[in-house]
């Protein structure tokens, strides 16, 4: 199990990444809308990996569990795409 220091550092990193998302959309003269969306998606992926890896303890699980979670996330992504396509 990770130490309190590790969890505190992860929490600070999550706060910095959330602030980064705010910066993308708060300064439209610097970042275009497409860059802000792309940056937000990248920051969200980093945040998800930190949360899943440390707070849900997937970092210390066997690789088969990690691959199972990645497959499930990919299927959710496909389902989201299909739902978006059917709405249009």
From TrEMBL:
GO CC, any one term: plasma membrane
Membrane association type: Multi-pass membrane protein
TM helices/strands, residue ranges: 7-27, 33-55, 67-87
Keywords per UniProt: Cell membrane, Membrane, Transmembrane, Transmembrane helix
Main subcellular localisation: membrane
Subcellular location: Cell membrane
Protein name: Cytochrome C oxidase subunit IV family protein
Originating organism: Natrinema salsiterrestre
């Amino acid at each position: 199990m990770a130490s309190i220091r590790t969890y505190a550092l992860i929490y600070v990193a999550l706060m910095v990444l959330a602030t980064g998302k705010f910066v993308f959309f708060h300064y439209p003269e610097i970042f275009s809308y497409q860059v802000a969306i792309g940056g937000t998606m990248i920051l969200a992926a980093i945040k998800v990996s930190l949360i899943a890896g440390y707070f849900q303890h997937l970092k210390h699980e066997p690789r088969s569990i990690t691959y199972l979670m990645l497959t499930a996330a990919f299927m959710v992504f496909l389902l989201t795409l299909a739902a978006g396509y059917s709405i249009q």
